[in-house]
Amino acid sequence: MPIASAAAAPTRAELVDHLVRTRIAGDVATPRENNLSHYRRLANGDRYYWFGLEFGDRWADEQDVLAVMAERCGVSDDPHHRQGQDTIDPELTVDALDRTAAVLRKAAADRQRVLFATGHPGGLLDVHRATAQALRAQGCEIVVIPDGLRADDGMVFQFADVAVLERGATLWHTHSPEPMAAILDGLEREGRPQPDLVMADHGWAGCAAQRGIEAVGFADSNDPALFLAEAEGTLQVTIPLDDHVLSPRYYDPLTAYLLDAAGLG
């Protein structure tokens, strides 16, 4: 059985084991052919896969994208492996959590303005909520987004301190950068400062990083854009993980480890 809801933070070894058993990392559900398809589309200039980032022609070779994903996410680096099982290296996941902890520790020390957002509310909403709660307890300002924001035929709302896209009373899975753009533009219109830090995923993180805001993001093995942005120094940290596993409670030990490492537990 996976580790239950995290009253106490797991050790690194316990977390690695948990990530593998719940398939947050290790042998993940996303198949190799889906990963390679997304790498190819990004390399071919399909902006849907750029997550609001601007790559120019720097990643036009699919094999270069694969090399970064093997290094930073832990997928197979074999270009002849075209279908079947692919992987996320759990050690890389925990390494990225440690780097994120350093970012959060600094945010708490400096009492930064922090914005949380997710395009994967079914999996990661509570990870962001718990982190926002911990930072607020340390004196950080959790950015409240403007009212009435619209993007991608939906409304941009905030639930439990986390910005999400809503359509028809349903929270939507989205890769789009447009909801984050709506938030940042809305803050500017109101004469309010931009966030010091954004913690997000998908296009929410990519858009913020492209605008020069310090950002950390979660990303799956078929979402190469944030890993490329980290490699280029645009994004501070990208955390590799399957971003929608069987139960959102499976992420609780990961959250506990992160907050403990940041001194926020």
What would you note in describing this structure?
It comes from Streptomyces inhibens. It holds the Pfam family Phosphatase. This is Phosphatase. With 265 residues, this protein is α/β, with parallel strands linked by helices. It has one domain (1-264): Rossmann fold, CATH 3.40.50. The chain is built from nine helices and eleven strands. The chain has helices at residues 12-21, 32-43, 62-72, 90-110, 121-137, 178-189, 202-210, 224-232, 252-261, and strands at residues 26-27, 87-88, 113-117, 141-142, 149-151, 154-159, 162-167, 170-172, 197-201, 214-219, 237-240. Strands 3, 4, 5, 6, 7, 8, 9, 10 and 11 form a nine-stranded mixed sheet that branches. α3 (62-72) packs across α8 (224-232), α4 (90-110) packs across α9 (252-261) and α6 crosses α7. The chain starts with 11 loop residues before the first helix and ends with a helix. Residues 1-6 have low confidence and may be disordered.
